[in-house]
Design a protein that fits this description.
Elements: E1 2-5, E2 23-25, H1 29-41, E3 51-53, E4 73-76, E5 95-98, H2 101-118, H3 124-133, H4 139-143, E6 147-148, E7 168-170, E8 179-187, E9 192-199, E10 205-210, E11 213-216, E12 222-231, E13 242-249, E14 254-261
Parallel strand pairs: 1-2, 1-3, 7-14
Antiparallel strand pairs: 4-5, 6-8, 8-12, 9-11, 9-13, 10-12, 13-14
Keywords: Hydrolase, Protease, Serine protease, Signal
Family: Belongs to the peptidase S8 family.
Domain Subtilisin-like protease fibronectin type-III: 162-261
């Protein structure tokens, strides 16, 4: 069997437990042009079967909070079952290589435990923020994020978009008028001066953050800011998401918040 990537997966090749002779090849235009020719020449009764694998997950209704190692993770494995879980597979092994969210989840859970041990006063929201805003799971970075998006028992925002979450998702922005979102940062590090910047495709949006500079004098201090976004190209956001980020930095720490914006025709949403 020849397992070929499609265009979206490109050169990404990872281990698969095949139970028959197989090779895994990357994507090239030449190979797929040849495959297309064979497909056109083959009849419906042909024994030729072309197997492809696609790892692209389209995240429209929900967005991931964090990514963590989850491909080809070596783990302890029960010898009571075989690695493929097929009745005809008689192999056993004390270890296996497994991929998926089941492998990513314990990585994140372990980092959460380390952060709670290092910062027992941090709330679950602060821990989530520290992990999310320092990028693809980075334990050392999450240990010292400097700023976090925390949640308190204060009265919630009138607008759901103002919920103090580390990421910003606008599922149905109105191309006719700008939208302003409020967030609040809490200092969990040393006193410092942080500068904010909104990074979005310039021909699609105009965006700004006010104030552009936040000054923190002590641990626990909280400061609010507003992000204003206006659509310049309505067609670019129609029924699809466009991505960017909000970044705060003191040139030592980088607090990043992903931004996802769309104008979905099938969503009824009030600002």
């Amino acid at each position: 069997m020849i397992l070929s990537n499609n265009k979206t997966t490109g050169n990404e090749i990872y281990r698969v437990l095949h139970v028959l002779p197989a090779i895994h090849i990357n994507y090239t235009d030449e190979i797929h042009m040849h495959i297309s020719r064979v497909q056109r020449l083959s009849s419906e009764k042909s024994r030729l079967h072309l197997w492809q694998i696609s790892l692209l997950k389209i995240l429209i209704n929900s967005l991931p909070d964090i990514t963590a190692p989850g491909v080809d993770i070596i783990v302890a494995y029960s010898e009571a079952v075989n690695p493929t879980e097929e009745n005809y597979d008689k192999r056993t092994s004390p270890y296996n290589m497994i991929s998926g969210t089941s492998m990513s989840c314990p990585h994140v859970a372990g980092v959460v435990g380390l952060l709670k041990k290092a910062h027992p006063d941090w709330s679950p929201a602060a821990i989530r923020s520290a992990i999310m805003t320092t990028g693809h799971l980075r334990p050392n970075g999450a240990m010292d994020p400097d700023l976090v998006y925390d949640l308190t028992h204060q009265k919630g925002p009138n607008n759901l978009l103002d919920f103090n979450y580390p990421s910003i998702k606008i599922p149905n922005i109105s191309p006719s008028s700008p939208i302003t979102i409020t967030r609040r940062l809490k200092n969990v590090g040393a006193p410092g001066r942080h500068t904010g910047r909104v990074c979005l495709p310039p021909r699609i949006f105009s965006a700004s953050v006010k104030p552009r500079v936040l000054e923190f004098d002590h641990v626990g201090q909280e400061e609010s800011f507003n992000v204003t976004i206006k659509v310049l190209d309505a067609d670019a956001v129609k029924d699809t998401y466009v991505f960017g980020e909000l970044r705060w930095t003191d040139h030592v720490h980088y607090v990043r918040s992903p931004i996802a914006i769309a104008s979905m025709s099938d969503i009824s949403y009030k600002n």
